[in-house]
User: What shape does this take?
Amino acid sequence: MYLAVVAEAFVRSVHLIDRADQERAGYPWDLPAIAQLAQGLELHPKVTYLVGENGSGKSSLLAAIAMAAGMNPEGGSSNYAFPSEGEESVPYAFSQRLATTGLADAVRLVRGARQPKTDFFLRAESLFAASTYLERLPCNPLRSYGAKSLHEQSHGEGFLALMVHRFGPDGFYLLDEPEAALSTQNCLTCLRRIHELLEQGSQFVISTHSPIILAYPDATIYRCTDSGLEQIDYEDAEPVRLTSSFLSARERFLHELLRN
Assistant: This one.
């Protein structure tokens, strides 16, 4: 199995600091994954994965890291951000709530000696906003995205075009459930692109339900649970276990699932 050369991490760990002037009640402070940041969360220098059920806090945690790195919770790089209101905004209420809770002021990143040359927080749901924003810039950088506007490509094609044409060497990249935009084949293509960028000194933090996206070797996987965060092996991740069990005993699963 081929492994990319390990470069020093841009972000070594994530911490929640004490703020005497900050009230921490309700969302997102009551999410165990967020609360555990007080103990610190170590990031792998190549790939750190966040897995867990819907509502377990993995996307909120990823957004918190993005905010602490200077990015908008709805997506984009530290050089620009997508609109937060109006028809182009991401249809997730937590994005707006995160921006008003002071979470960004309480999250601190412990950085390595290297500094990223570029960064990007990419969410499948924010692709339309990304495309619209880029197209309105005076230089219209969309023309270089495969010489075709992202609005003229399918959701999956546009997502991969961003990864291929916008992502570059020595970058710090956060992906929130990329499989939502991708076919099974394109999940493999995405994994290949991640590998290429890792070989070029990049670092990724990825929230996913996909056993394919999750499969990069020698990565750190954290499971978000009701108790907080726990580090697990690939084979113990629920997307892997359930998919494997279903495929190996499909008729039995369907019988139990569909019976009256």
Residues 25 and 207 are 25 Å apart (CA to CA).
